[in-house]
Write a structure and sequence with these properties.
- The structure is a homotetramer.
- The first copy, chain A, is mainly alpha-helical.
- Chain A folds into 2 domains: about 1-45, Homeodomain-like (Arc Repressor Mutant, subunit A), CATH 1.10.10; about 60-185, Tetracycline Repressor, domain 2, CATH 1.10.357.
- The first copy, chain A, has 9 helices and no strands.
- The longest helix of chain A is centred in the first third of the chain and has 25 residues, at about 50-75.
- At the A-B interface, helix 6, helix 8 and helix 9 of A face helix 6, helix 8 and helix 9 of B.
- Chain D binds a DNA duplex (21 and 21 nucleotides) through helix 3.
Chain lengths: ~190, ~190, ~190, ~190
DNA sequence: AATGAATGAGAATTCATTCAT
DNA sequence: AATGAATGAATTCTCATTCAT
C-alpha cells in the first residue's frame, strides 16, 4: 500500500497522543514526525499546517463521539435507560481511549468554532435526551442547557480530578452507574 | 517604588487577560508589553520569565480564591448553608472577575504542580465541606473526591457552557441557588 | 512514444506560461504538474531538473527566434526593408505568443550564459543589419552595439509599457511601422 | 546611537545589493544578515518579511528617482534642455549607483502595483516632458505613451546591453548626449 | 526602574527530488 | 513512461531573553 492511508493514520494517532499530553502549541512538528517515524515534510502532504491537523483531529473525533452517542440513545426507551446507556458508553470510551477524550476536553475552546450546527455533537445528545425526558414527563421542566451542563459537568469533572490529582483511582467505567444515579438526582428525575 | 508597583499591577492584569483569552503559549511578551503600555524589557524587572509570570498568576489567584472560600465556609453552621455560601461566593467571584476564574480553569493542568499541600485550594474547600457534612451526618457516606468533583463539575460546566456556546445567558450569580440545590441533591443531602 | 512527446509538449507549454507569469523561482514543480495534468515525477522523465527545464525553454525559444529573424533579414535587399521586416516579424511574434517573448525578456539575464557565440541570437541579428547598413552606406557610422541596443530598446520598452501600465492598448503589430520609422530616425538612416 | 537607524541602513544597502545581483527570491535572509553583519532576527525588527523589505526598497528608490527627475525637468526652459537634463541625471545616477537602478529595473514588474498614482514616477516624468513639448509645439503630436516608452527604451536597453554582454564599455554618462540626440530624433523634435 | 534594539535558538513550512509501485 | 507518497535540506519567521543606554 503506497497510498498514504497508513502514514496518515500513524500521524493522526501520534499527534493526538502528543497534543493530549502536552498541548498543541507545545508539541512541535518534529515531535510528531519523530514519534510517528516519518519525515517532517510528510506531515504537510496530509495536512496544510499543524493547526489544520489539530483542528481536523478535533472535529473528526468530536463528531464521531456525538454520532455514537446519538445512535445509542435512540436504542433506549426511556430517559433513565437512555442516560444510563450514554453515560456508560462515554465512560467506556474514556477507559478505552482516554487520550482522545482528553484531547477533546483540552482543546474544545479552541476549535468549537469549527463545528457547524449540523454536525453530531455530544453535548447536544445529552441536551436532547433531557429535553425529550421533559416532554415525556420523565423529568420536571427546567432549563435544558443548564440541566445538560450540570449532567456533563458531573461526568467530566470526575474524569478531570482523576487526571489532575490522582485522587480518584477507580476505572471511570466502574463509576458509570454512580454517576448516572447522581445525574438523575440532579435532574429530579 | 509606587511607580514600580503600579507597573507590576498593569502587567499582571494585562497578562491575566491575554492569557485567559488566548492561552499562555499563544500570548507573546510583546503582546503583553504593548497592551500594558510598557517596554518588553520591563517585564523582566518583575518576573524572571514568562513562565514565572503565568505560574505566579495561577498560584496567587488560586490560593486567594481558596483562602476566601475557606473563610466563608467557616462562618456557616451546617452543610447546607456552607455549600450555599461558597457557591454563592464562587458565582459572584465569576461575575466580578470572569477573566481570572477562566484563567484558573484554563491553566489548571499546567500549574497544578506548583501548588503544595499546605496552600489554600478551592477544590479542597469543597471536599472539606463535604467530608465534614458526612462526619456530622448531613450527607450520606460516599467517596469525598467523587462527591467534590461532581459538585464542582456542576458549577464549572455551567460556566463553561455559558462561555462556549452562548446558550446560557443569565448571570451566573442568578443561578447560584439553583446550582446549590442541584449539588445538594447530588450529594443526597 | 507519441504519448511521451505530447506530455513533454504539455509540460513545456505549461511551464513557459507559468514561468512567464510568475518567474521561474516562484513557480513550483507542483504548479507545473497540476496545470499540465501530469504527476510531479513525470517532469523528471523529460528534464533532469527544474533549472534544466527553464534553461532549455530559454535557449530553444531564443535561438528559434534568432534563426527566424536571420532568415527574414536575408530575404530583404536594403537596410530599410530589412529593419521593417524583422520588426514586423518580431511584433507579429509577440502578438502571436506574448507569453514566449515575455519569458525570454524576463529570464534573459539568468540564462544568457547558456548561449554560445554560434547560436542564432535576435540581438545579433539587429546588430548585423545595422553593421551591414553602415558598410553599405545606408546608415552613418556609429557604435553598432549602442545602435542595436537603442533599436531593440524602442521595441521592447513599448511592449513592456503595454504589459506594465496598460497605457498602450493597440496591438503591437499595429505599431510595427511606427516603431520602424522611429528606429530609422534613431539610426539617422 | 541605539535607535536602529544605522542598522536599518546597513540592512537596506546590503539587501539592495544582493537583490540586484541575484534576485529577491534567490537571496536568503541569511545572505542578507550575514553580509550586513546582523542576526537574522534583526531583519524582522525593521521589516515584517523579506517581501516587505524588497517592496519598500523598490517604492522608496523608485519614487526618490521620480522626485529628483521631476525637480530637474522643472528647472529647464524647453523640451530639448529638459530632456537633456533628465537623461544626464539618469545616466549619472546609474554611474553613481548602478546597483540601485538595476534593482528598480529587475523588480519593476513585481512591485509596480505597490505604487499609487500620486507617487513620483520616473516614467511619468518622461511622459510629462514629452506631453508638454507637444503642447508647446516643440514636438509633433504623437501618442505620449508610445513616445515616452521609446525614449526610455533607448536609455534602458543601452544600460542593459552593457550589463549583459559587456559589449558596451563606456561609462553611461559618457553616452548621455548621444542618447539624448537619439531620443530627440525619435520624437522628431 | 525602564527602554527597545538586537540576538539566536528553534519552530513551521516549502519544495525539488527520489523511488517504490 | 507515469505516478504521487515520502523525503529532508533549506528557508522563512517567531519570540523569549539580553543588554547597552
Amino acid at each position: 500500500m503506497r497510498n498514504g492511508t497508513k502514514t496518515k493514520k500513524r500521524i493522526d494517532r501520534t499527534a493526538l497522543k502528543l497534543f493530549a499530553e502536552k498541548g498543541v502549541r507545545e508539541t512541535t512538528i518534529r515531535d510528531i514526525a519523530t514519534a510517528a517515524g516519518v519525515a517532517e515534510g510528510t506531515l504537510y502532504r496530509h495536512y496544510a499546517s499543524k493547526e489544520e491537523l489539530a483542528s481536523d483531529l478535533f472535529v473528526e473525533n468530536f463528531t464521531a463521539l456525538g454520532r455514537e452517542l446519538a445512535k445509542i440513545q435512540e436504542q433506549e426507551a426511556n430517559t433513565r435507560t437512555k442516560l444510563l446507556a450514554i453515560i456508560r458508553y462515554f465512560c467506556a470510551a474514556y477507559d478505552k481511549d482516554a487520550t482522545m477524550i482528553n484531547y477533546l476536553f483540552i482543546t474544545r475552546h479552541g476549535y468549537m468554532q469549527k463545528l457547524t450546527a449540523r454536525m453530531p455533537n455530544p453535548y447536544l445528545v445529552f441536551r436532547r435526551v433531557i429535553r425529550d425526558g421533559m416532554a415525556r414527563g420523565d423529568i420536571p421542566k427546567q432549563d435544558p442547557d443548564v440541566a445538560a451542563s450540570m449532567v456533563l459537568g458531573i461526568i467530566l469533572q470526575v474524569i478531570d480530578t482523576r487526571i489532575l490529582g490522582r485522587r480518584i483511582r477507580q476505572r471511570i467505567s466502574d463509576l458509570a452507574d454512580t454517576l448516572t444515579a447522581a445525574c438523575l438526582r440532579v435532574l429530579n428525575a
